[in-house]
């Protein structure tokens, strides 16, 4: 607001034909202060509104709409302030004088555009800082979730069970898969984006660990084409989606949970059959998917898509 007010006088002097007759008195300063204060408020409101979910991903359209909105608002503010604080004037005469004869409105248009650009820059900078904080929070929460004592308890319990059955080879394979899981998490925990191949290899190791516990009750099929392997996606995306399916469904060897992961164009799709727990019905699955959606919106300006019918739950994830 202070920047707008301070720069209003030199812009008026540079633009106006009446620069030599410009009277910088108390009324002029008061008038400019009121006008440009209102203009700043309008610009900030416009940037906040047009950065909402409906406009955020439509970058060219959003900027054009913001600019037109600001210009229209500047005209309304200046006309009303002139009418109330200075003297009543017809609209046609006001615009003829402001645009053609004296060009006073051109300075206001420049000022409004500058305020909009500065506000947009500040807004985007603030959003980037918030995105960095959110990424750090996710890294911590994801690592904490993987090191959850409950997860480790299930793993050790499975190893113990295999030991009683004398499955030395099975224990070796299981612990190798478990080690690969933690190696991937620790080595990639500071990376936001990883290749599809890295995620694919990880989810197969993760499935190997889950398979020892759920046996024939859990089935995973991964069909991702070679051309997609080197594309990027966010760290631990597939783990979250598979875990989400396991957590919110009741299944056994007679009624197994079948998870299918495949690519389609620039998307990775995860789908599973639905057999929800009576106390669940996917009511609690929204938080993890919401966080994942926010991460993708920040990373590539595209969110995930969730589709559900009576038999299938599907999540479509954009590649970066």
Can you put this structure into words, describing what you see?
The chain is of the alpha+beta class. It has a 5-stranded mixed beta sheet with strand order 2-4-5-7-6, covered by helices on one side. A two-stranded antiparallel ribbon has the order 1-3. The chain has 2 domains: 128 residues, no CATH class; 172 residues, Histidine kinase-like ATPase, C-terminal domain (Heat Shock Protein 90), CATH 3.30.565.10. It is built from 10 helices and 7 strands. 63% of the residues lie in helices and 12% in strands. The protein starts with a helix and ends with a strand. Strand 4 and strand 5 form a beta hairpin. Helix 1 packs antiparallel against helix 5, helix 6 runs antiparallel to helix 7 and helix 8 runs parallel beside helix 9.
In short:
The chain has 320 residues and is α+β, with helices and mostly antiparallel strands. Helices cover 63% and strands 12% of the residues. It folds into two domains: 128 residues, no CATH class; 172 residues, 2-Layer Sandwich (Heat Shock Protein 90).
């Amino acid at each position: 607001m202070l920047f707008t007010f301070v720069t209003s006088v030199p812009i008026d002097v540079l633009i106006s034909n009446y620069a030599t007759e410009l009277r910088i008195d108390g009324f002029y300063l008061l008038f400019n202060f009121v006008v440009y204060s209102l203009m700043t408020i309008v610009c900030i409101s416009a940037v906040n509104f047009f950065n909402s979910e409906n406009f955020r991903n439509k970058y060219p359209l959003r900027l054009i709409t913001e600019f037109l909105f600001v210009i229209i608002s500047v005209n309304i503010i200046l006309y009303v302030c002139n009418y109330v604080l200075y003297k009543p004037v017809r609209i046609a005469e006001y615009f003829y004088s402001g645009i053609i004869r004296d060009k006073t409105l051109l300075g206001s248009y420049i000022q409004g555009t500058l305020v909009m650009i500065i506000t947009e820059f500040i807004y985007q900078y603030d959003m980037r800082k918030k995105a960095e904080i959110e990424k750090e929070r996710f890294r911590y929460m994801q690592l904490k979730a993987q090191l959850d004592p409950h997860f480790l308890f299930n793993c050790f319990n499975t190893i113990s069970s295999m030991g009683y059955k004398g499955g030395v080879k099975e224990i070796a394979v299981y612990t190798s898969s478990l080690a690969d899981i933690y190696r991937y998490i620790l080595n990639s925990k500071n990376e936001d984006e990883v290749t599809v191949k890295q995620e694919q290899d990880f989810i197969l190791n993760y499935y190997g660990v889950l398979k020892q516990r759920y046996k024939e009750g859990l089935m995973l099929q991964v069909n991702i084409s070679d051309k997609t392997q080197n594309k990027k996606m966010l760290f631990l995306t597939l783990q979250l989606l598979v875990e989400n399916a396991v957590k919110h469904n009741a299944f056994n060897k007679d009624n197994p949970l079948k998870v299918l992961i495949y690519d389609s164009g620039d998307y990775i799709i995860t789908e599973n059959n639905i057999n929800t727990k009576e106390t669940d019905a996917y009511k609690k699955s929204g938080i993890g998917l919401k966080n994942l959606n926010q991460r993708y919106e920040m990373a590539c300006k595209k969110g995930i898509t969730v589709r559900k019918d009576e038999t299938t739950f599907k999540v479509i994830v954009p590649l970066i």
